[in-house]
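Review this fold:
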Amino acid sequence: MLNGTFTPFPILTTERLTLRQLVINDEQEIFILRSDHEINKYLDRQISKTVDDARDFINKVNDNINKGNSLYWAITLSDKNILVGTICLFGFSNENYKCEIGYELLTTFQGQGIMKEAVEKVVDYAFNTIKVKKIEACLHRDNQSSIKLLEKLSFRNSNEPDKTNPDLICYHLKNSTDNLK
């Protein structure tokens, strides 16, 4: 059984980042993330049209966290409490001890190693605290930045086409400590 209790919400820190729970005050940055066409071009989701859409999204995310269905962090710079992106774990499977990871970053903060730092921290948390054995990431085949990031972090292409969308490719990372057992 996976450790799926997310109360209190796990705040994760790295040298430059604090990963914390989304709050309503993040509505403007969430609106920017979810309405930016460059960020959303590879994502199959409804684009936010208003700040109210962003507020509704934050409430929905926090409801899912309370139900134990997902973890969704605001990525903030440690020296400023400003949201620059998000990262989440979802699709938890007790049967297969796995979950999926997703992330997004405001365009002005891309190319600075922020997402690499955030993904490393969340992967560590997933493997060592939640005790998943495998993390999956499904992304658009044209999203080269995300593919490079995942490969840099030792994720491997599953070489299995997504059954629902042929434009998606799936990568996975297995917990290396499980290979030692």
Summary: The two ends are 18 Å apart (CA to CA). The chain has six helices and eight strands. The chain has a mean pLDDT of 91. Residues 132 and 170 are 17 Å apart (CA to CA).
